[in-house]
């Protein structure tokens, strides 16, 4: 698995330090709001569990599963594969996402939850690829901005693999250009 990685972009330690800072910021803003934290599965599982451990106040967690990717290209069409079970009305929602790329997924989710009457909807993303954005959408809490390359690890996958890498790396082109 590690041999398929061209180079490490963010080490486990860099990610951990950045998550400490982000969690501090979120804590300052949400401590008294009992927010509904919504990890976007499956990519956000590692990032969100690490973030949640750093958020020591009352909150709820409920997941959605969205999919817009087939292989290494975004299709632009978002599918909500699994919805939350919580009532969103009046809640302060924080989506947790692995990476914002074209922006289609989070724009769709944000608008959907606003329509459902959320008190506020914010986005916390581990990575942001600003160069590949196709819609008007910004993350509110962003770990790092990333180059336009195909990344894996820390939840990010290629065809379902590499999610379990404890760092974020650039996948060798030879792996997916076959
Ligand atoms: P968006 O709708 O284009 O913003 O897509 C967001 C989703 O695309 C993320 O949740 C990831 O699952 C996936 N994605 C975007 N860039 C990458 C990447 O470099 N590696 C793996 N998955 C990615
Ligand atoms: Mg994803």
Which features characterize this protein?
3-stranded antiparallel sheet; binds inosinic acid; 4 helices; 178 residues; alpha/beta; globular; single chain
% residues in beta strands: 25-35%
Give the helix level as a range of percent. 10-25%
The chain-level structural class is alpha/beta
Note the run of SSEs as H and E.
EHEHEEEEHEEEEH
The N- to C-terminal Cα distance equals 17 Å
Bound ligands: inosinic acid, magnesium ion
Overall pLDDT confidence: 95
- Sequence stretches where pLDDT stays below 50 over 5 or more residues: none
Question: What's the overall geometry?
Answer: globular
Q: What count of helical segments does DSSP give?
A: 4
Please give the radius of gyration in angstroms. Answer: 16 Å
Can you count the beta strands?
A: 10
What does the main sheet amount to?
Answer: 7 strands, mixed
Please describe what this structure looks like.
It is a single chain. The two termini are 17 Å apart. Strand 2, helix 2 and strand 3 form a beta-alpha-beta unit. The protein contains four helices and ten strands; from the N terminus they run E-H-E-H-E-E-E-E-H-E-E-E-E-H. It has 178 residues and is an alpha/beta fold. Strands 2, 3, 4, 5, 6, 7 and 8 form a seven-stranded mixed β-sheet that branches. It has a three-stranded antiparallel β-sheet with strand order 1-10-9. The structure holds inosinic acid and magnesium ion (MG).
